[in-house]
Amino acid sequence: MPNVEDRKFLEAQRRPDREGVIMPATDKNLVKLEKLAEEKKSRSEERIQRQKKFKASYETRHEIEDRSPLRTSSSDEEQAEKDSDGKSRRGTRNVIVPELALTYDALGVSCRDTVLLVASTAQSLGVDVGELNINKSTVHRKRAKNRSYVAQNIRQTFQADNVLTLHWDGKIVPDLIGKNRVDRIAVVVTGKTTDKLLGILKIEHGAGLATANVVFEAVESWNLGPNIKALSFDTTSVNSGDELDNIITFATEQLKSFQPRDDFREMLVLIIIFVGGVPPKGIKFMAPGAFNKTRWMSVAIYSLKIWMFQDQFKLTPFEKKGLLRVNYFILKVYAKCWYRAPSAIGAPLNDLELIEDLISFKKIDKNSATVALRKLSNHLWYVSETLVPLSLFDDRVPLEEKKKCVFNLKNSEGLPDPPARLAMFAEECPPLPELFTTNGMKFFEILGISANFLEDDVQNWRNNSEYLSARETVKALRVVNDHAERAVQLLQTYNRKITTKEDDFQDLLQVSSNFKRKIARSKKPKQDSFESLAG
């Protein structure tokens, strides 16, 4: 263009920021999001690089086979991997000792995490990580061999009581490999000094015969058949002054006894406060805890608290009525039978009192009482003709009533094939002596205890050595299935972790249960506790 001014004008018009042009508004939110995305991507890349660098500095490329499942410092293979100048290509110092391997197994730490933890700990202590023989494959082999060694030692050194109770419970969990779900049965035996997990075995289906076969195999594998004497499994007016005093007295006495969990104690404290009493340590309320659907106690605790704090939030009449129904059931029925449930000696009388309480509770809440009675009718094992002699050792049974029980035990002929459970009574509960027949003598035969004390007067039983010995045996029976349920929890903790081999998985369960029982979650475990872990 010959005219210079015209050329400049044209160039100015072509500029996007020329005068007279309205620029589009910038989307600030979009710019901000793009900036955040870039920063996030940058941080992610930096984190990945740090992880790669960290792992590369501690994991070696070579693997060796160890001679011993326990401590080894070097091997022929390690010596063969040395250069001609005598310098080792990698660390040969073994740090995965038995105590450490057992601890990592019990805590469910994976082999990869074990490598990182050991390396980080060694570095923090000033140890040259290059001298250590640690990598994922080596750690895996050492832990598996040590696990097998300890599990075998546990089986060989196990000594059981002569009288054992067999517990089992089932759980459907993912299989060790694949996407299928399998049914596993936890089998446990308990006795006066015994609490042992036999195994958590896989079955094709949960039918009765399949379960029985698996339980039988577990017992036979430990040679405990002759010791099994009992079985434990899961099957399928409040405002009166005297009654309130009884509730307070019962809860106070239970607080003096050992309670295995804080929520057990908390519910007793709430019951005392609810009926107008004062707990031994004063009126205190704990912060709301977890709401666990597996334990009805959490429902009871929240129900009592909500009622006592109802002025602090709004409740509808329908909600108040429902809370009152639940709380009446807790006070009249649930609390007493729950805290007495672990006693084998008190089981028959507890069942009869529960029936009486539920029949009486119909006056307050007929629907709830009827449903509870119908459910209870499937669980009256301890008042059968064979097991009702447990009550002979119960101090709550009056002496005169025990005399009638002994008379019927000797003279009242029972059925040739008595039912395993008591037939439910609709509106009344049978007296305890009426449940005794000659079939009750099988109880003493099964447990292998002497019945000679029955010839002595009931008043002299407290001084009879045979009665006292029999009472100790019966007292050691575990009639609740918490032991099998804890084994199921152990299954859920370790399933599909650390190992995918069935034999190794069973060893892991043995080692972990043994570890947890000996350490018992001690905050400062003693040195001798670690030294005895393999025993």
Concise structural overview:
With 535 residues, the protein is of the alpha+beta class.
Low-confidence stretches are 60-84, 236-241, 527-531
- Give the amount of beta strand, in percent: 5-15%
Number of strands: 4
Say what oligomer this is. Answer: single chain
Radius of gyration: 34 Å
Order the strands across the largest sheet as they lie in space.
Answer: 3-2-1-4
Helix content estimate: 40-55%
Gross geometry: extended
Q: What series of H and E elements makes up the topology? A: HHHHHHEEEHEHHHHHHHHHHHH
Please outline the major beta sheet.
4 strands, mixed
Let me know the average pLDDT.
82
Distance between the first and last residues' Cα:
102 Å
Count of runs of 4 or more consecutive helical residues: 19
Domain tally: 4
Structural class: alpha+beta
Describe this structure in words.
- This protein has about 525 residues and is α+β, with helices and mostly antiparallel strands.
- It has four domains: about 35-155 and about 500-535, no CATH class; about 160-235 and about 480-495, Nucleotidyltransferase, domain 5 (2-Layer Sandwich); about 240-320 and about 330-340, no CATH class; about 340-480, no CATH class.
- Helix content is about 50%, strand content about 5%.
- The protein has a four-stranded mixed β-sheet with strand order 3-2-1-4, sandwiched between helices.
- Helix 9 (about 260-275) packs parallel to helix 10 (about 295-310) and helix 12 (about 345-360) runs antiparallel to helix 13 (about 365-375).
- The longest helix is centred in the first third of the chain and has 31 residues, at about 30-60.
- The radius of gyration is 34 Å and the shape is extended.
